[in-house]
Structures are given as structure tokens and as C-alpha cells.
Amino acid sequence: MKTGITGATGQLGRLVVGKLKEKADAASIVALVRNTEKAKDLGVEAREFDYDKPELLAGSLKGIDQLLLISGSEIGQRARQHANVVNAAKQAGVKRIVYTSLLHTGNTTVSLAEEHLPSETAIIESGIPYTILRNGWYTENHTGSISGVLAAGAVFGSAGNGKFSSAARADFAEAAVVVLTEARHEGKIYELAGDEAYTLAEYAAEIAKQTGKNIVYNNLPVGEYAKVLESFGLPGFVAEAIAGWDVSASKGDLFDDSHTLSKLIGRPTTPLSDVVKNALTV
Questions:
Q1: Are the C-beta atoms of 32 and 6 separated by less than 8 Å?
Q2: 3-135 placed in CATH 3.40.50.720
Q3: Tens digit of pLDDT for each residue in 91-140?
Q4: Distances from the Cα of 170 to the Cαs of 6, 135, 148, 173, 194, in angstroms?
Q5: How far is CA 154 from the centre of its chain?
Q6: Residue 282 scores a pLDDT above 80
Q7: How many angstroms separate the CA atoms of 207 and 212, rounded?
Q8: What CATH code would you report for 143-147+153-163+195-256+268-281?
Q9: How far apart are CA 137 and CA 192, in angstroms?
Q10: How many CA atoms lie within 13 A of 178 on its CB side?
Q11: Are 46 and 31 in contact (CB under 8 A)?
């Protein structure tokens, strides 16, 4: 059985390829990427795959039995792009689609759901057997900016006391591999989140604990937080989106205590303290 992985050179995709190679023959894995040169180090077949070139997609999916559709990174373009992929999968005779969606997509104020929900619908209505992985927040979404936190002595945000049930990106990658290598997940929609939930104040306290520095959480009105993000060089629409996600977190939209992720991977999810420690040593 050949497994195609879109976005295989991205942060999640690389982890999936690496973990899948531990369970399946590398010859059965195909990296579907925009730039095949960047996929050379993956050790698997690479094919050009650009969501914005629908005329080429079906050809790249030839011989693919199951497809892991890792959601695209272009905010505002994904529903259209994913529809292109689903249509191509139908043309190519793909027998199964696994899709990385968003936690509580059907009932959330997180703006990303506006693209994930139609993508889920397109997959379900395609008639292709599917599994949908509604991924919660990656802890790395926070720790990716840890150098800025250390420089400022503060974590900035608009999440109030909202809790993030986040997990390490590697945990979500492992869940994808479990689903890809087992048949029992067909037709399932999984809400995936970390075992541990924390506020941004608790996140700041964890950094302070590990560094010995005075790190505080500075909760800002959403407009002010967006301006702070813009001052770091983010485009205005991206800054507004990120600030808005914090507001959604304040409403409980990024909290989940079902422990579905840890049950799926057969172990506890990676603790916040471990991800913080790893970020501090990079």
C-alpha cells in the first residue's frame, strides 16, 4: 500500500515521514511537496504537488492508496486548495484520506474553522473513506517565540485565563501514523488535544521556573496584542488572526479533556515542561 503525505517537508510532515518509516517500508511512502529538492533528505520518493496547480494533482496521486492531507499553511486559501486535492484524489482512485483539521471544528470561534469545516465536508461528501484528525494547539505555537519572551521578560497575549490543551507536534504526528497504519479508524473524527491544560500565565511561570528569570504574562486587549505582533514584523491580517485565536482560547475553544490523543498514541502526551526545555536548548 502506497501512502502519500502532502506538505511532507513542513514541520508536521517531516515528523510523520520519519515516524512512518519506523513502521512501514520507505518504498511505500511518497512525499507530495511543492519543491522536490527540499525532500531529498527524507529518504522516500518525492513528487511535485502544489495545491494551486489542480491540473497536475491527479497525476501526482497516481498509485497512491491512502493520502494524508496535511492542511495548507496559507490562511484564506485552504478551503479552495483542499477541494482541489479532494477532487484529484477522486480522479486518481485514492482509497482513503486522512485529514488534519482543527479541534472542535464544528463548534468553535477559532477563525481557522472557517476553512477546515468546508474541507471536512468536501472529504466526507467525496465518498472516499476517511479519518479526520481534529488537531488541537501545538505547544510549539507558543514556544516558537520563546527567544522573544526571554528578551521582553513577558509573554504577551489576549487569552485571559483561557486554557490551552496543547501537545507537542510530535504527538500529533504519531497519531497520524497510528491512523495510517491501522484499519480500525475509518469513518472516525477524532478530537485531539494534550492531556495537560495551562493558561498563558502558567506558561510564563514555567519559563520563569526553568530559566530563573522574571517572566510574567501580560494580558492585552485584542487590538493592542495585534499591534504588538505587527511590531514583531507580522503582516496585519496575520497579527489580527493570531490575536483572535487567543480570544477564542479565553472562551474555552482550545480546551479539551477527552484525552483522545493519548489514548490513540498509547502514551501520555508530551508535557509543557518538556517542550519548553527543548525550546530553551535550541
A1: yes
A2: yes
A3: 999 999 999 999 999 999 999 999 999 999 999 999 999 999 999 999 99
A4: 17, 12, 23, 5, 12
A5: 25
A6: no
A7: 8
A8: 3.90.25.10
A9: 9
A10: 19
A11: yes
